[in-house]
Every structure is written in C-alpha cells, then in structure tokens.
Amino acid sequence: MALLITDKCINCDMCDPECPNDAISMGAEIYEIDPDRCTECQGHYDKPTCQSVCPINNCIILDPAHVETEEQLLEKFVVLQGMA
After folding, report:
1. What range(s) does the 4Fe-4S ferredoxin-type domain occupy (predicted)?
2. What pLDDT score was predicted for residue 50?
3. How far apart are CA 14 and CA 19, in angstroms?
4. Distances from the Cα of 49 to the Cαs of 5, 16, 78, in angstroms?
5. Considering all CA atoms of the chain, what is the largest pairwise distance in Å, rounded to the nearest integer?
6. pTM of the model as a whole
7. What is the H or E stretch that residue 58 is in?
8. Where does residue 11 fall: left (phi above 0), alpha (psi -120 to 50 degrees), or beta otherwise?
9. Whether the Cβ atoms of residue 31 and residue 24 lie closer than 8 Å to each other
C-alpha cells in the first residue's frame, strides 16, 4: 500500500525531505503523498522514513485506496530508479 498523510498533519516539514522517491509535497492545506511514487521506502529502508520522523502519532497511515503487495512496491521502486 502507498501511505497517506491524514488531517492530523501540522505541516512541520519533517517528512518531505526524508522521502527517497520525492512522493511527498505540500498540498492545498497539508502535505500529501503521491501514491504513484510511494513505495513505503521498499528498496531504500527497512521502514518508511516519513513515519519515523513524523512527530504526530498515526498521522501517516496505510492508504486503503491504494492496496499494493510488497512485490508491487518493489517493482515500483525499480521503475522509479530507472532500473527496469
């Protein structure tokens, strides 16, 4: 699954620079995650760095609208890195 930033976001700017896929950007009111670029850090880190640095509990969650397997996330990582 891609990740989703909820309305708990306080726009602290901690997550944006940590994303290795440039999937996080400022939306109309809060930061947003582009599900086409989010790999949950598969291929980069053991766990999503945005969740690790976010100071708000449960602010960045799994996006139920974008269900993906670990294999699909790794495939997306390969494509985003230009390895395909």
Report:
1. 1-29, 31-65
2. 98
3. 10
4. 13, 10, 18
5. 37
6. 0.92
7. none
8. left
9. yes
